[in-house]
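User: Here's a chain of 71 residues. Predict its fold as C-alpha cells.
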Amino acid sequence: VRCLAEKKQTSRGIAQNRKAHALTQEKLAARVGISRVHLARLEQGIGAPSLPLLIAISETLEIPLKSLFEI
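Assistant: Prediction complete.
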C-alpha cells in the first residue's frame, strides 16, 4: 500500500469489514496472529499491512481480498 489515499482506504476497509462481521480488534487480531495494538494501528493508517496479512484478514472475514480496498 504505497500512496496515502490507498493506505487510508485500506485502513477503513479493514475496520469496516471487521465491524460488519461483529469482531472486536482483539478477536480479529488473535485470528490472524497479530497483536490488538498492531491491528489498531493498521486501522488508524499507521503502518501498512503486508500482503500475507491482508490475505489472512480477508480469509478470516471470508471476503474477497479486493473488499478491503473498496470502502
